[in-house]
């Protein structure tokens, strides 16, 4: 163990394996919080869909399901590239990790661009968050999800910069794993949002 | 000292039964715990630094006992509360309906014979009544302690409650759900009347029940109208600020309106503001006053204006 | 520094397979909802398919399959709470009496 | 009992090793962060408490004469919001929890020290937003019920936004604690050797982690309702105002346990030390904390029995509510049994612990009144509820908090408190509290509704008594504050283990060194091994 030095704020004797385990567990806990954050919206959706089935049916037809499906494919694809990146990192293949992170980020950007197209199309048709309960839900759910995509992109960007700087190796890749978990959650939420909003409304 | 308010409805006694049952149980446990607490504290007070203490870490029998007994008692309380609750929530088929509308900060009662009253509820002795209730703006709650009834009024949704008044008299009705600045002034009276008095009231012979009679001077009648119709919730008579402009020295004053114009407060403006409140709203106040059209008679509006003029 | 202990490393091939399955399920859910239209059980079917997809993502992409039991508890408990929120709120909202 | 801990250590303590603003504001030391929280929550406690004194003064007479009704409504909104979100929820858990968890489990810090500092900064950001919110404070009550909160002209958005940010501070603190307790226990510190305070904070952390996001999204929807015009809670747009109450209490009922469980943990630590007896029924207390954490998620709608919810829901929730009372009852009996045949020392911390037992019993038992369906219809939204809630929150949580402060003060600051002064303060607090709140039970039964700026003359005498009580309570608090601050400067130097406790935190120096222990201790027994076996 290192000696305590009075001017060094924290001389943590952290074992990278322990840190990895703790961070991963911590991220899982955070994902639980995120699920319940979205959970409030899912519950709202469940209540109002049961209350106003016709409204949900008529309004969901105004959504562009093809664009939604495209975004689903993009996001699931980015989830796969992220997963490949994690494995690459664990195998110490830094180059593949950087490539995979780049693809993931590009997918995320395309996803965001599609959402932008979708929102502007809605606004052009005078559909706003206060148009109906369904569209309130649509904008709140996809908006909150988009916010998460945005945060996820920043996280991945930082990880990519660190990867380029050579911070990760087969024995240290905590950020990659934890950032990956967060990105997969974004995918998970979308897997539910897509059918709920675009397909069955 | 009265522990509970007067019991004036058919189920008030039963609610008190639940209350007393829980209270007595609570007191028994409270005494048990407190006596043991104090007894242990003094009996086992530290005498020396090295007092002998036994290493007791638990006792399964005891722990099972004090898990099972409270569980049973708690279930009994639940069941007792449930039985009385069921009765409180199930109005008898022959209950007379009264429509209640609550808005900031008055109560409006509409009866089946077409009458409507503000902040005064008239019911007949020993005749079950069912309140069908609705709020206009925000949440309110109909609470008559003497009847042990309470139910929130929710905008966009009807709620109901019923009671059978068993004692002739006058009772307080409170708004129990916070509803804004005038919340604590949102009070009303419930008059429980004998069948004779009630039918006289129903036929329109109001002298018997309410006090505004032609024998009163317009100023006195206006004062009555002021306190009966909930004006006081928003309009003070002592010059203090409220939700609406104060009535003190209101007459003859120049008020600036929301559209930027000014108006001198005269009889016509006062009359219009009582009947069509939203027409000319004074600057700095929200357009939240309800209309009293159809609620006050012409004579009563006149009287109210005389009263406002008298407040110099 | 110790080696990366006995952690499971998923081969690349697995991810490709999982991705293909997910794509297939996406096509199925779109097809079922838009072409077959099962009416009232539409929601049910769509949710089943979405849950299968979500489970696969969690198990393989997120490596939940290889996590210890406490991670499982904290992954599943929020779902239980969510069903509770929806379930118990529904008991209120859909049983109110209209006088 | 633990071995491998040095009794006296000559290194500088965590308080001394470095000084200056930066050494505090950027510290990642859990003990210093604990102090930062302690100072912050104390400031909010003083503000919210002073507001309460003004409110009680206004209620001295039935008419409104000190503040206008609108101002009164603003005051109770602020009192509630500040006390709940800025003081009690972070209260014991963020201040004492931060200080004690690593010390008690034999770790050098929490799992994520930087995140811990981040949580505190989030708390500060929430507080800063609150300051702006004070420019035009909301008048909705701390419950923010729609549609009023969506319609009022006062600034609801900033206040709810502040609380939203605080929510994340609370979530991240909970997350940190769960990981710390799971992954960082010293060798030999098995789950069944964990101090009960840790069990309590673990249960609390679960609630913080999983209940808070729901209130977060609910308040976010309220903000969206005011800004974007969405209408989930607006009847004019097809929404349902009661849905808001369902969502709000899905968090806020578990939040009641976020507030009380840590205090229960404190009591479980203080009682054994000052009775020299092992805690009675360790496992029952530990598991009942976890049981409360789980069951408390199922009971929220007992706040809504008269709100317009369905009868079926009311009946189910009343039943579930009585379930949660069982583990609570078990705990009270276990604490009582701990005193039996002990050697009880009336230290000021012990006095607070004993008054917790007494007052929490009153608070718990009156909870049965409002849990029983028929009785709740009469008592709901009256002063009875106000009294019940304050008996649990002050009689329970705040007594536990004061007890904890008096108990761990020597460890934290390295100085002994003036015990006599502590007892005098306790006396005023105890008497003042009861005089303030006991009359409110009677007021409630007689039908005095809560949140009334003015009231009917028939309630006047009891209301006056309650106001007088609030002055006595304030005197007690002032004496206590004086004692806490004075002892910092002139208190006797504290020995490492002044109460001969067996718990790990007492085995290191007072105040602890920067990384808590010279060497990570090896734990061989639980920390309640008092008394002679056999």
The major sheet of chain D is characterized as: 2 strands, antiparallel
Inertia-based shape of chain D: globular
Order of strands across the widest beta sheet of chain D?
A: 1-2
What share of the residues of chain D lie within helices? 55-70%
What is the succession of H and E elements of chain D?
Answer: EHHHHHHHHHHHHHHHHE
Spans of chain D with pLDDT under 50 lasting ≥5 residues?
A: 1-7
Terminal-residue CA separation of chain A: 60 Å
Determine the strand fraction of chain D and express it as a percent band: under 5%
Structural class of chain A: mainly alpha
The mean pLDDT of chain A is: 90
Give me the CATH fold name of chain D: Cytochrome C Oxidase, Chain A
Shape summary of chain A: elongated
What is the count of β-strands of chain D?
Answer: 2
Find the CATH topology of chain A: Four Helix Bundle (Hemerythrin (Met), subunit A)
State the total count of DSSP E strands of chain A.
0
Describe the structure.
The complex is a heterotetramer of chains A (201), B (312), C (99) and D (534). With 201 residues, chain A is an all-alpha fold. Chain A has helices spanning 16-51, 53-60, 65-90, 94-124, 133-164, 174-199. Chain A has one domain (40-199): Four Helix Bundle (Hemerythrin (Met), subunit A) (Up-down Bundle). Chain A is 79% helix and 0% strand. With 312 residues, chain B is an alpha+beta fold. Chain B has three domains: 12-42 and 58-89, no CATH class; 96-208, Cupredoxins -  blue copper proteins (Immunoglobulin-like); 218-310, Cytochrome c-like domain (Cytochrome Bc1 Complex, Chain D, domain 2), CATH 1.10.760.10. Chain B is built from six helices and twelve strands. In chain B, strand 6 (140-144) and strand 7 form a beta hairpin. With 99 residues, chain C is mainly α. Chain C contains three helices and no strands. Chain C has helices spanning 12-36, 42-61, 69-93. Chain C is flat and about 65 Å long. Classes of the chains: A mainly alpha (201), B alpha+beta (312), C mainly alpha (99), D mainly alpha (534). Chains in contact: A-C, A-D, B-C, B-D, C-D. Chains A and C meet through helix 1, helix 3 and helix 6 of A and helix 1, helix 2 and helix 3 of C.
